[in-house]
Amino acid sequence: MPNVENWEVLLTALPILEKKSFQEGEEMGAAKQIKLEMKGISIEFPGVKALNQVDFNTMTGTSQALIGANGAGKSTLMKVLSGAYGHYTGEIYIDNEPVSIRNPKDAKDLGIQIVYQEVDTALVPYLTVGENIMLDYTVNDMSSKQIVSWGHIHKRSKDILDKMNVKVSSRKLVSELTLAEKQMVLIARAISKTCRFLIFDEPTAPLSHSETEELFRIVRALKQENVGVIFISHRLPELFEICDDITVMRDGEFVLKESIRDITQNQVVEYMLGRKLGDQFPKIDIRKGETVFETRNFGDGEKIHDIHIHVKKGEVIGIAGLVGAGKTELCKALFGMVKANTGDVILHGKKLRLRSPNEAVKQGIALVPEERRKEGILVSESVTANITAVNLKKFSILNTFLSFKKEKEAAREIIRNLGIKTPSENTRVQNLSGGNQQKVAIGKWLITDAEVYIFDEPTKGVDVGAKKDIFELIFQLAKRGKCIIYASCELSEMMGITDRMYVLYDGMIAKELQTSKTNEEEILFYSTGGK
Amino acid sequence: MNTAKTIQTARAPKSFELFDFLYKYGTLITIGLLIIVFGAMSDSFLQPSNIINILRSISIVTIIAIGITISLSVGGFDLSVGSVASLANALVISMFVWHGQGVWTSIILTILICLSAGVINSFMIVKLKIQDMLLTLAMMFVFQGIAQTYTKGATLSQNMIMPDGSFSTGIISPAFAKIGQVPWIIIIMLVVVAIVHVFLTYTKHGRYMYVIGGNMEAAKLSGIPVNKYRIAAYLMSAVFAAIGGIMLGARVMTAEVNSGAPYLMDSVAAAYIGFAVLGAGKPNAIGTFVGAVLIGILQNGLVMLSVPYYAMDIVKGTVLAFALAITYYKTK
Is A530 helix (H, G, I), strand (E, B) or coil? Predict the structure, then answer.
């Protein structure tokens, strides 16, 4: 406990402090633009060179778009800038002064703040909005002060929220907020301290249209305040609406920086991909058979409604749509993860009962789920145990006793066929790279001989090489006459791998498209609610 | 990325190798050291009669701990085993003393009644989704209370005084007493350990349980009937607790109030020590047995060195904390 004398001094000092920080803000508004430069940034993770000699620069008072395909290194670069990865090589200059950013505190002290995509990881749900906004202050700036002044916290956070023109009470619990409001709280936290550069990592992905507009209003206001905004997004139209400059990255390397007025969306896509779309995807002509799998009036009673899809033998159909359109929900419902399914699911002319994944598997449906580590694999088990987990019956005698020899043979075969890079079949899956973990998650379904394979974002967090292997694998399955349902928000994958696709919007099928007769713009048009 | 690089990432850094070695063999080394130390300090410690004595003393702990091991294997936890053992002890003795039943009727009825404890546990945990540790903590008191209410707080034994002042007439069968004596009590323990080891390691069902314990969500999405196996695990846990309670009854031929309670702590410790044995890294039957042996030796040796019984909990609690420390440090 501090002594009383100290306390009073601190209390009286407080308003001055506050005043000063506001003044600082005003001064900054008038201040000259500050340059941020990153030169030759490289970073390596075990087995992967994530960034290779990347240059990046921006200024306060402007908004900079950072774009690249999945795995291009955008997020990694921004994590370096915000101090999350301290082991980079290369130089960072602010205002031509070299700086060293080795931990998040370094970055914050330099006025670099980041709003991560997963807002929930950065917020404490059972504390109030005010406490969350002032968290950095409570953690870092209270120094010898021991008593939390509630009045100060709520007053200061209310000021910030008012300044942002956000109507959320600072006394509300964060757990009661919507996702968009949580994001606002994080932005408020970022600007509660000196903020010269603010990084947004895919902020609009989970937001609705009106929420996005609201976010853009705040971004514009921040620019007015001489904050440098760095915006990572996959949605090109948004970037062209909100950003001044654009930096494109590909495969961990810098590609180009251009003023957004001097470039078109199509050019950006070309730079992002760096090659024609077809290259990545194997092109094999597969003869389609009769319709095998079909849903009628299918829904999960909550998010998705009235789904009519059909899949022919050997056909790859896509489920397109933005994040939140209901792709994952549809995949899970088809796999029996939802109790209150409505409508019919028909396989080979037979109506299926899908009350649990257990029933779904027995009836020939397989799902490679989106959240690989959480839902797809057993990290602490061996590759063998992972691969055989779905069909142990095949490896047991009298349906009870396991045959380790048979398991080993099957695991080795899968490892060989899928090119899983692992020292041995006994290695724990947690020691494999993301792409190889995903191959294990897919591989386990190959020994079940399912009829319908559902893939939910199978290339998420997977490097380019492994991606190609996964596409190859999907084609092999199609060749064997399986039905493939491929859900992804990556438009290029939709175009490359599917024969036909259904575009989901708000839990309903907005449009059915023939892949050969459509393009990315059209998919995006229907995904965003176009009619 | 090439294979060489993957191998590199797969191999643990060198500084961890000593820890890994100690993790794998630490328990066995400790047992060895304890035997040497106690053997040197006390002449009678290494006598065959004392070794049999140790095995006898750990048999009940081991069987109850095996139940906990099974509940741990599906990622659950059963704290109510001690109370279920108390209940089984009271039930089985009362079957003889109050109701004059035969050996088989008494044992089977006792197990069936205790099975209902497992049914309640699994229903509340699996269907109502209550956290296992908290629920079984609550049920621990419920079952303990039921056992006490059933016996009206009295100790049951042959020729006990009934509430109406008469003496009970039932007789505990001599065949039943055999269960609690050497060699049968040790044989039963070894058979249970062997069966559960085979079950967990060599059968499909055991593998499913480990998969569920490792990642319940992934297990569900692999099509494993997760709830069925979780329910089965709590039922088995209750059955093994009941068997432990019955053996306790056979050994002491009475049913004291809360007789099973002291076994909880030892069993939890045995199961957690078992995690590390030979580097299994997960609950397993052999490891649990080794854990029980470690505790048994420690207890026996300390008694011989005249450490008072009331100080024993300090030692046991420390051993448990140590086992937990190793397990969680490893999984960090």
Answer: coil
Q: What is the pLDDT of residue A14?
A: 40
Strands of A197-201's sheet in order across: A112-115, A197-201, A228-232, A63-67, A245-250, A253-259
Q: How far is Cα of residue A25 from the mean position of the Cα atoms in its chain?
A: 33
Tell me, what amino acid is at A139?
Answer: V
Neighboring chain B residues of A433 at a CB cutoff of 8 Å: 1, 6, 9
**How many Å apart are CA B318 and CA B307, to the nearest integer?**
15
pLDDT at residue number A31: 61
Burial letters A392-401, b for 16+ CB under 10 A, else e = beebbeeeee
Least confident piece of the model among A266-280, A422-436, B141-155, B173-187 = A266-280
Note if the bond before B183 is cis, omega within 30 degrees: yes
Cβ neighbours of B204 in A, within 8 Å:
392-393, 395-396, 399-402
What ipTM was reported for this prediction?
Answer: 0.73
Contact A336, A355 (CB under 8 A): yes
- Phi, psi (degrees; rounded to nearest 5) at B258: 55, 35
Q: How far apart are CA A386 and CA A411, in angstroms?
A: 9
- Hey, is the C-beta of A105 within 8 angstroms of any chain B C-beta? no
Q: What pLDDT score does B241 carry?
A: 97
Q: In what order do the strands lie in the sheet with A365-368?
A: A365-368, A452-456, A483-487, A316-320, A500-505, A508-514
B183 pLDDT above the threshold of 50? yes
Torsion, CA A336, CA A337, CA A341, CA A343, rounded to 10? -40
Bridge partners (DSSP) of residue A45 are A48
Output phi, psi for A151, to 5 deg: -55, -45
> Quick one: pLDDT at residue A197?
92
Query: Higher-confidence residue: B35 or A33?
Result: B35
Q: Which carries the bigger pLDDT value, residue B119 or residue A180?
A: B119
Residues 6+ apart with CB under 8 A from A59: A33, A34, A35, A36, A228
pLDDT of residue A463: 64
Residue type, A395: F
Q: Which residues of A329-341 are buried (b: 16+ CB within 10 A; e: fewer)?
A: bbbbbbbbbbeeb
Cα B34 to chain center, whole Å? 22
**Token pair of B270 as six digits:** 């045995």
Considering only CB atoms, which chain B residues are within 8 Å of A375?
A: 215, 217-218, 221
The amino acid sitting at A237 is P
Q: Please state, in angstroms and as integers, the Cα–Cα distance from residue B113 to each residue in A172, A363, B89, B145, B232, following that order.
A: 50, 38, 12, 15, 16
Q: How far apart are CA A69 and CA A36, in angstroms?
A: 24
CA B108/CA B92 separation, integer angstroms: 9
The encoded tokens of residue A530 equal 């176009």
> Using an 8 Å Cβ cutoff, are A273 and A72 in contact?
no
Residue of B nearest to A424 (CA): B7
| Cβ contact, residue pair A402, B207, below 8 Å | yes
For chain B, count helices (H), then strands (E): 14, 0
What residues contact A369, with CB distance under 8 A and at least 6 apart? A331, A332, A375, A376, A441, A456, B221
Residues of A in contact with B221 (CB under 8 A): 335, 337, 357, 367, 369, 375-376
Per-residue confidence (pLDDT) for residue B259, from 0 to 100: 92
User: Exposed/middle/buried for A283, CB within 10 Å: 0-12, 13-18, 19+?
Assistant: exposed
Whether residues A48 and B207 touch (CB distance < 8 A) is answered with no
Q: What is the pLDDT of residue B267?
A: 95
Residue type, A310: H
- The whole-angstrom separation of Cα A243 and Cα A261 is 10
CA B22 – CA B83 distance, rounded (Å): 35
pLDDT given for residue A135 in this prediction: 84
